[in-house]
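User: Sequence in, structure out. Go.
Assistant: Echoing your sequence, followed by the structure tokens.
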Amino acid sequence: MYPSFNPQQPFVWSLLNHQGRERLEGIVKRKEAERQVGNTAWISIGTSLGGNLHTTAMKLRGALDVVFCAALNPSKISGDPHYLWTSWEDRHGNRGVIPRHVLVVGPRKKKPHEYALICTSEERPFALYPQRFCTGDYQNYPSGTPVSPGFPQRAALVTGRLPAICGSGAEYEEGFTATLIKPWQVKVIADRPLTNEEWERIRDWERIGTYAQWQDLVDSIRHPGRLSSSASI
């Protein structure tokens, strides 16, 4: 199945992978819970897409397609500690609190900052669908240079290239599409380590939790002094 977007206008492409202790399937389930509860999901990408993202989104009336692809060679699951981010900062330095239904967690990478894409979808849930995506069909926007998947390019603003030359790029088989909405991308700030008990609660929810239990789980992690029914998942 091909992604449902217009490849001849700019869109965002991003790789998805296991994160530290967490498997990709669990991450996607968490992001779908955010979408169901609050209509938006904040998906970490670990790198800034720069000012071109905001300029291009404004030209396209405030919305950009985004295509997420499951990595072909998943990272190894590790025991690295995970962190919780609770605030955000935009490119102008404006700051705010991450919405109440959102849980931005993961290992702290060896980069100065972490970033998140603000996503929504009115068409279908976030899940790993069969989805063919070949990077050789696309080029970086607006530079026109080839897309080079993997380190350091794990996310990019791209557009279709003519003629398409799929044989020269990586071909992904699973993923999903979404819509980026304002403010599109932010830096996430104000982090703290998750306790082992908090991490176990997240992992338990990913295994057997329901979307109806999601907000209780988020509240119990972001406001650990509160009592929450999620502790009994």
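User: And one key feature?
Assistant: The mean pLDDT is 89.
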